[in-house]
Amino acid sequence: MRINTGAPLPSGADAVVMVEHTKVLECSEDGKTEHAIEILKTPHAGAEIRPIGSDIKEGDIVLRKGSCIGPSEVGILATVGKTDVKVYRSPTVAVLSTGNELQIYTEKLIPGRIRDSNQPMLMSLLSKQGFNVKGGGIAEDNLDSLVARLKSALSDADILVTTGGVSMGEKDLLRYALTSHFDATIHFARVNMKPGKPTTFATCCFEGKNKIIFGLPGNPVSAMVTCHLYVIPACRKIMNFPYSKILPTKIRVKFGGPQPVFLDPRPEYHRAYLDWSGGSELPVAYSTGNQLSSRLLSMHSANVLVILPGASKSINKAEPGSIFDALIIDTL
Asked: What is the pTM for the complete model shown?
Protein backbone atom coordinates (compact mmCIF):
# COMPACT_ATOMS: atom_id res chain seq x y z
CA MET A 1 0.00 0.00 0.00
CA ARG A 2 1.35 3.45 -0.93
CA ILE A 3 1.15 6.15 1.74
CA ASN A 4 2.08 9.82 1.58
CA THR A 5 4.32 11.58 4.10
CA GLY A 6 2.26 12.84 7.00
CA ALA A 7 -0.75 10.60 6.34
CA PRO A 8 -2.32 8.49 9.12
CA LEU A 9 -1.00 4.92 9.31
CA PRO A 10 -3.40 2.29 7.91
CA SER A 11 -4.88 -0.08 10.45
CA GLY A 12 -2.63 -3.10 11.04
CA ALA A 13 0.53 -1.52 9.62
CA ASP A 14 3.56 -1.02 11.88
CA ALA A 15 6.29 0.12 9.47
CA VAL A 16 6.80 2.32 6.40
CA VAL A 17 9.40 1.83 3.68
CA MET A 18 10.64 4.93 1.90
CA VAL A 19 10.15 4.85 -1.86
CA GLU A 20 13.90 5.31 -2.26
CA HIS A 21 14.33 1.83 -0.75
CA THR A 22 12.03 0.08 -3.25
CA LYS A 23 12.23 -1.09 -6.87
CA VAL A 24 9.20 -1.32 -9.18
CA LEU A 25 8.87 -4.80 -10.71
CA GLU A 26 5.48 -4.44 -12.36
CA CYS A 27 3.20 -1.48 -12.94
CA SER A 28 0.23 -0.29 -15.00
CA GLU A 29 0.69 0.80 -18.61
CA ASP A 30 0.55 4.49 -17.66
CA GLY A 31 3.17 3.93 -14.95
CA LYS A 32 1.00 5.47 -12.25
CA THR A 33 0.16 2.31 -10.31
CA GLU A 34 2.63 -0.28 -9.02
CA HIS A 35 1.46 -3.89 -9.15
CA ALA A 36 4.60 -5.43 -7.68
CA ILE A 37 7.68 -3.96 -5.99
CA GLU A 38 10.87 -5.23 -4.43
CA ILE A 39 11.78 -3.92 -0.98
CA LEU A 40 15.52 -3.27 -0.99
CA LYS A 41 15.91 -2.60 2.73
CA THR A 42 14.40 -4.82 5.40
CA PRO A 43 12.02 -2.73 7.52
CA HIS A 44 11.59 -2.98 11.27
CA ALA A 45 8.58 -2.23 13.43
CA GLY A 46 8.14 1.52 13.85
CA ALA A 47 10.36 2.43 10.88
CA GLU A 48 9.60 5.87 9.39
CA ILE A 49 6.66 6.35 11.75
CA ARG A 50 6.18 9.31 14.08
CA PRO A 51 4.12 8.05 17.03
CA ILE A 52 1.28 10.25 18.22
CA GLY A 53 2.69 12.70 20.77
CA SER A 54 6.30 12.23 19.73
CA ASP A 55 6.58 15.97 18.95
CA ILE A 56 4.28 17.34 21.63
CA LYS A 57 2.65 15.20 24.29
CA GLU A 58 -0.70 16.00 25.80
CA GLY A 59 -0.12 18.30 28.74
CA ASP A 60 3.30 19.52 27.55
CA ILE A 61 4.05 23.22 28.04
CA VAL A 62 4.98 24.46 24.59
CA LEU A 63 5.74 28.09 25.48
CA ARG A 64 6.27 29.71 28.87
CA LYS A 65 5.40 33.20 30.02
CA GLY A 66 8.09 35.59 28.85
CA SER A 67 8.91 33.67 25.68
CA CYS A 68 9.81 35.90 22.74
CA ILE A 69 7.45 35.28 19.83
CA GLY A 70 9.54 34.65 16.73
CA PRO A 71 9.08 32.47 13.63
CA SER A 72 9.58 29.19 15.54
CA GLU A 73 7.15 30.22 18.26
CA VAL A 74 4.54 31.22 15.68
CA GLY A 75 4.91 27.76 14.12
CA ILE A 76 4.50 26.07 17.50
CA LEU A 77 1.35 28.07 18.27
CA ALA A 78 -0.06 27.18 14.85
CA THR A 79 0.75 23.50 15.46
CA VAL A 80 -1.32 23.40 18.63
CA GLY A 81 -4.07 25.63 17.21
CA LYS A 82 -3.51 28.47 19.66
CA THR A 83 -4.47 31.51 17.63
CA ASP A 84 -4.84 34.02 20.49
CA VAL A 85 -2.16 34.62 23.11
CA LYS A 86 -1.60 37.46 25.56
CA VAL A 87 1.55 39.44 24.79
CA TYR A 88 3.28 42.54 26.09
CA ARG A 89 2.65 45.51 23.85
CA SER A 90 5.57 46.77 21.81
CA PRO A 91 6.40 50.32 22.92
CA THR A 92 5.94 53.22 20.54
CA VAL A 93 9.17 55.16 20.14
CA ALA A 94 9.31 58.69 18.74
CA VAL A 95 12.61 59.92 17.30
CA LEU A 96 13.20 63.69 17.32
CA SER A 97 16.23 65.50 15.91
CA THR A 98 17.33 68.94 17.09
CA GLY A 99 19.53 71.63 15.57
CA ASN A 100 19.31 74.69 13.34
CA GLU A 101 21.91 73.14 11.05
CA LEU A 102 19.69 70.18 10.13
CA GLN A 103 17.37 69.72 7.21
CA ILE A 104 15.22 66.83 6.01
CA TYR A 105 17.49 64.39 4.20
CA THR A 106 15.13 64.03 1.23
CA GLU A 107 15.37 67.71 0.24
CA LYS A 108 18.02 69.50 -1.82
CA LEU A 109 20.86 70.54 0.46
CA ILE A 110 20.85 74.21 1.46
CA PRO A 111 24.21 75.96 1.95
CA GLY A 112 25.19 75.97 5.62
CA ARG A 113 22.98 72.98 6.42
CA ILE A 114 23.60 69.24 6.82
CA ARG A 115 21.17 66.42 6.14
CA ASP A 116 19.58 64.83 9.19
CA SER A 117 20.93 61.28 9.15
CA ASN A 118 20.14 60.50 12.80
CA GLN A 119 16.37 60.28 12.49
CA PRO A 120 16.14 57.84 9.56
CA MET A 121 19.08 55.86 10.96
CA LEU A 122 17.60 55.39 14.42
CA MET A 123 14.11 54.77 13.07
CA SER A 124 15.52 52.01 10.87
CA LEU A 125 17.47 50.49 13.77
CA LEU A 126 14.48 50.52 16.13
CA SER A 127 12.07 49.23 13.48
CA LYS A 128 14.47 46.35 12.82
CA GLN A 129 14.12 45.41 16.49
CA GLY A 130 10.34 45.16 16.09
CA PHE A 131 9.33 48.34 17.91
CA ASN A 132 6.69 50.80 16.72
CA VAL A 133 8.55 53.89 15.56
CA LYS A 134 7.40 57.40 14.64
CA GLY A 135 9.35 60.36 13.32
CA GLY A 136 9.21 63.48 15.46
CA GLY A 137 10.61 65.91 12.91
CA ILE A 138 13.37 68.45 13.53
CA ALA A 139 13.28 70.97 16.38
CA GLU A 140 15.08 74.29 15.97
CA ASP A 141 17.52 75.52 18.59
CA ASN A 142 15.01 77.71 20.40
CA LEU A 143 12.83 76.89 23.36
CA ASP A 144 9.45 77.40 21.70
CA SER A 145 10.24 75.10 18.78
CA LEU A 146 11.77 72.45 21.03
CA VAL A 147 8.89 72.43 23.52
CA ALA A 148 6.30 72.21 20.72
CA ARG A 149 8.12 69.27 19.12
CA LEU A 150 8.53 67.55 22.48
CA LYS A 151 4.81 67.88 23.25
CA SER A 152 3.85 66.47 19.86
CA ALA A 153 6.25 63.54 20.15
CA LEU A 154 5.34 62.70 23.75
CA SER A 155 1.62 62.66 22.96
CA ASP A 156 2.10 59.73 20.59
CA ALA A 157 4.93 57.75 22.17
CA ASP A 158 5.88 55.73 25.24
CA ILE A 159 9.57 56.48 24.73
CA LEU A 160 11.04 59.65 23.24
CA VAL A 161 14.50 59.56 21.70
CA THR A 162 16.10 62.89 20.86
CA THR A 163 19.45 63.58 19.23
CA GLY A 164 21.48 66.73 19.84
CA GLY A 165 20.94 69.50 22.36
CA VAL A 166 22.47 67.63 25.32
CA SER A 167 26.02 69.03 25.46
CA MET A 168 27.19 72.20 27.22
CA GLY A 169 26.58 74.85 24.54
CA GLU A 170 24.15 77.75 24.90
CA LYS A 171 21.87 76.14 22.29
CA ASP A 172 21.77 72.81 24.10
CA LEU A 173 18.32 73.30 25.61
CA LEU A 174 16.92 69.80 26.03
CA ARG A 175 17.49 69.35 29.77
CA TYR A 176 16.17 72.83 30.56
CA ALA A 177 13.09 72.29 28.37
CA LEU A 178 12.33 68.95 30.03
CA THR A 179 12.63 70.22 33.59
CA SER A 180 10.97 73.63 33.11
CA HIS A 181 8.08 72.66 30.83
CA PHE A 182 7.46 68.98 31.59
CA ASP A 183 8.56 68.71 35.24
CA ALA A 184 10.84 65.89 34.15
CA THR A 185 13.30 64.13 36.42
CA ILE A 186 16.81 63.98 34.98
CA HIS A 187 18.29 60.70 36.20
CA PHE A 188 21.67 61.20 34.57
CA ALA A 189 23.13 63.59 32.02
CA ARG A 190 26.78 62.62 31.70
CA VAL A 191 28.25 59.16 31.18
CA ASN A 192 31.88 58.12 31.45
CA MET A 193 32.04 56.52 28.02
CA LYS A 194 33.26 57.12 24.48
CA PRO A 195 31.35 57.84 22.34
CA GLY A 196 28.23 59.11 24.11
CA LYS A 197 29.46 61.23 27.03
CA PRO A 198 26.47 63.67 27.12
CA THR A 199 23.80 60.94 26.99
CA THR A 200 20.79 61.98 29.09
CA PHE A 201 18.05 59.88 30.66
CA ALA A 202 14.85 61.42 32.01
CA THR A 203 11.29 60.51 32.92
CA CYS A 204 8.12 62.55 33.20
CA CYS A 205 4.35 62.27 33.37
CA PHE A 206 2.68 63.74 30.30
CA GLU A 207 -1.08 63.77 29.75
CA GLY A 208 -1.45 61.39 32.68
CA LYS A 209 1.00 58.80 31.34
CA ASN A 210 4.55 58.00 32.37
CA LYS A 211 7.10 58.71 29.65
CA ILE A 212 10.75 57.76 29.17
CA ILE A 213 13.13 60.16 27.43
CA PHE A 214 16.60 59.43 26.09
CA GLY A 215 18.61 62.45 25.01
CA LEU A 216 21.32 61.06 22.74
CA PRO A 217 24.30 63.00 21.41
CA GLY A 218 23.99 64.67 18.01
CA ASN A 219 27.02 63.02 16.44
CA PRO A 220 25.60 60.10 14.44
CA VAL A 221 28.02 57.42 15.70
CA SER A 222 27.38 58.47 19.30
CA ALA A 223 23.63 58.32 18.66
CA MET A 224 23.88 54.86 17.10
CA VAL A 225 26.08 53.41 19.83
CA THR A 226 24.00 54.80 22.70
CA CYS A 227 20.80 53.61 21.05
CA HIS A 228 22.23 50.08 21.13
CA LEU A 229 23.33 50.43 24.74
CA TYR A 230 20.39 52.30 26.28
CA VAL A 231 17.29 52.62 24.10
CA ILE A 232 16.98 49.09 22.75
CA PRO A 233 17.51 47.46 26.20
CA ALA A 234 14.90 49.82 27.70
CA CYS A 235 12.36 48.85 25.04
CA ARG A 236 13.06 45.17 25.64
CA LYS A 237 12.65 45.64 29.38
CA ILE A 238 9.27 47.28 28.86
CA MET A 239 8.25 44.28 26.74
CA ASN A 240 9.30 41.96 29.58
CA PHE A 241 12.06 40.25 27.61
CA PRO A 242 13.97 37.61 29.61
CA TYR A 243 16.92 39.22 31.38
CA SER A 244 19.38 37.28 29.23
CA LYS A 245 17.96 38.93 26.08
CA ILE A 246 17.68 42.52 27.27
CA LEU A 247 21.30 43.57 26.85
CA PRO A 248 23.48 42.96 23.79
CA THR A 249 25.19 39.57 23.84
CA LYS A 250 28.71 39.81 25.25
CA ILE A 251 31.55 37.67 23.89
CA ARG A 252 35.34 37.51 24.21
CA VAL A 253 37.38 38.58 21.19
CA LYS A 254 41.00 38.94 20.17
CA PHE A 255 41.81 42.48 19.07
CA GLY A 256 43.19 42.42 15.55
CA GLY A 257 45.04 44.80 13.27
CA PRO A 258 48.62 45.71 12.48
CA GLN A 259 48.84 48.67 14.89
CA PRO A 260 47.94 49.25 18.54
CA VAL A 261 45.09 51.62 19.39
CA PHE A 262 45.75 54.31 21.97
CA LEU A 263 43.24 54.26 24.80
CA ASP A 264 41.05 57.19 25.81
CA PRO A 265 40.72 58.14 29.49
CA ARG A 266 37.12 56.96 29.18
CA PRO A 267 36.07 53.35 28.44
CA GLU A 268 35.50 53.15 24.69
CA TYR A 269 33.02 51.19 22.59
CA HIS A 270 35.23 50.60 19.56
CA ARG A 271 33.44 49.70 16.33
CA ALA A 272 34.78 46.52 14.76
CA TYR A 273 33.90 43.50 12.65
CA LEU A 274 34.57 39.86 13.48
CA ASP A 275 36.63 37.36 11.53
CA TRP A 276 37.08 33.63 12.22
CA SER A 277 39.33 32.73 9.29
CA GLY A 278 42.70 32.78 11.07
CA GLY A 279 42.33 29.58 13.07
CA SER A 280 42.19 31.46 16.39
CA GLU A 281 40.29 29.97 19.30
CA LEU A 282 38.52 33.33 19.62
CA PRO A 283 37.07 35.48 16.84
CA VAL A 284 39.32 38.36 15.85
CA ALA A 285 37.81 41.85 16.00
CA TYR A 286 39.19 44.26 13.41
CA SER A 287 38.66 47.99 13.79
CA THR A 288 36.47 49.72 11.20
CA GLY A 289 39.04 52.53 11.04
CA ASN A 290 38.86 56.13 12.17
CA GLN A 291 36.58 56.22 15.23
CA LEU A 292 35.50 59.87 15.09
CA SER A 293 31.98 60.14 16.49
CA SER A 294 30.92 62.08 13.41
CA ARG A 295 32.23 59.41 11.00
CA LEU A 296 29.24 57.19 10.36
CA LEU A 297 31.33 55.03 8.04
CA SER A 298 32.85 53.50 11.19
CA MET A 299 29.45 51.81 11.80
CA HIS A 300 29.35 50.42 8.28
CA SER A 301 30.22 46.68 8.45
CA ALA A 302 30.57 46.86 12.25
CA ASN A 303 28.90 43.97 14.03
CA VAL A 304 30.51 44.35 17.46
CA LEU A 305 31.49 47.06 19.90
CA VAL A 306 34.81 46.13 21.49
CA ILE A 307 34.90 47.40 25.07
CA LEU A 308 38.30 49.02 25.51
CA PRO A 309 39.23 50.05 29.07
CA GLY A 310 40.07 53.61 29.96
CA ALA A 311 43.74 54.48 29.84
CA SER A 312 45.71 54.12 33.07
CA LYS A 313 49.31 54.45 34.22
CA SER A 314 49.86 50.76 33.54
CA ILE A 315 48.17 50.55 30.14
CA ASN A 316 47.64 53.24 27.52
CA LYS A 317 47.06 51.24 24.34
CA ALA A 318 45.22 48.18 23.07
CA GLU A 319 47.78 45.90 21.48
CA PRO A 320 46.93 43.50 18.63
CA GLY A 321 46.30 40.08 20.13
CA SER A 322 44.89 41.48 23.38
CA ILE A 323 41.68 39.90 24.66
CA PHE A 324 38.64 42.11 25.34
CA ASP A 325 34.90 41.83 25.85
CA ALA A 326 32.72 42.83 22.90
CA LEU A 327 29.00 43.41 22.44
CA ILE A 328 27.26 41.97 19.38
CA ILE A 329 25.20 44.65 17.62
CA ASP A 330 24.47 43.06 14.24
CA THR A 331 24.30 39.73 12.46
CA LEU A 332 27.60 37.86 12.29
From this structure: 0.88
Q: How far is the CA of 332 from the CAs of 22, 122, 142, 227, 243, in angstroms?
A: 44, 20, 43, 19, 22
Collapsing DSSP to helix, strand or coil, 150 comes out as helix
Q: Tell me the C-alpha distance between 305 and 120, whole Å.
A: 21
Q: Are 273 and 286 in contact (CB under 8 A)?
A: yes
| pLDDT of the chain, 332 residues: tens digit per residue | 889 998 999 999 999 999 999 999 999 989 888 899 999 999 999 999 999 899 999 999 999 988 989 999 999 999 999 999 999 999 999 999 999 999 999 999 999 999 999 999 999 999 999 999 999 999 999 999 999 999 999 999 999 999 999 988 888 899 999 999 999 999 999 999 999 999 999 999 999 999 999 999 999 999 999 999 999 999 999 999 999 999 999 999 999 989 999 999 999 999 999 999 878 899 999 999 999 999 999 999 999 999 999 999 999 999 999 999 999 999 98
**Residue 93 to residue 223: CA distance in whole angstroms:** 15
CB atoms within 10 A of CB 206: 18
Determine contact, residues 231/126, Cβ cutoff 8 Å: yes
Strand pairing class (304-308; 268-275): antiparallel
For helices 143-156 and 174-182, what crossing angle results, to 10°?
70
